[in-house]
Request: fold
Amino acid sequence: MLDVLIVDDSAAIRKILQRVLRQAEIPIGAVYEASDGVEALEMLKKQTVGLILSDINMPNMDGLEFLTKVRAEQAWQSLPIVMVSTEGTQAKVLEAVERGASGYVRKPFTAAQIKEKLAGLF
Amino acid sequence: MTPQINMPAEITQAELVTAIEGATHEVFSTMLNLPLVAGSVFVEKEEKTPTSGVVSLIGLAGAWVGTGSLSCSAALACKIASHFLMAEYEAVSEDVLDSVAEVTNMIIGNVKTHLENRLGGMGLSTPTVIYGRNFQTRSTKNREWTVVPFDCEGERLCVQVCIVPNADAEGKTVRSGFPVPHVLNV
Reply:
């Protein structure tokens, strides 16, 4: 079972991603939520997860800064992190990859697209 | 003929309208499964009469600055939330406003991606959603909006953008590259 952390400032997207993960037939265990990078880092200190889905444009700490801080910790260097964002330019995607993203899905997305992305990671 | 506004040389009004229509159709088909029929594009400098319903605003900033907006009736906002969250919403609630905000974020975010190829990098603000009756909206500095109306199962939805060069940008622009497909294998 995979414990997941979903990071997005939209409560609606967090609900949708949970539903999409289950539709994608991913064996999900616990799902933790955070509304920005600061909350997400605090959550990671308390909970062990096997996957992170993170938005980029968020208040307080955006997804790219969050990604950089996660990868700076040895314990989290191999943790799969998929960015889920409206940012769709090549430059932004490459920046996410350079900072350590395991994958990138652009919003809007379908369950099939999430499933395809995660199939490549597990 | 669509009334023309004084669009910057780097982007035509037709290109802006194509970006808005494409982004809106993509969001409504991918995440809402709601049909949309685009209407005749028009230019609006200010709202002439008070309106009611839901308006969602999101800012754009960089070498160009502006605002993107989505407006609809409360009934359509509830329908959007019902399809987005796959739950029934009969009255505007926090979930409904959050859904409209995120739909606006996705539409204008994708319009931004298209604009960035021509206008350079831009940031996107978090959305602000307003719900009420008998209110008017105003843009500062006499800005003009390109408005794309849609019909969604008998309800009207408007997606509109106004964008102008950033007078404080000192001519610095950053070209962000080309849009990428949905799923990137890295």
Notes: The two ends of chain A are 12 Å apart (CA to CA). Chain A touches chain B at residues 9-13, 15-16, 19, 57-59, 85-94, 97, 101-110, 113, 116-117, 120 (CB under 8 Å).
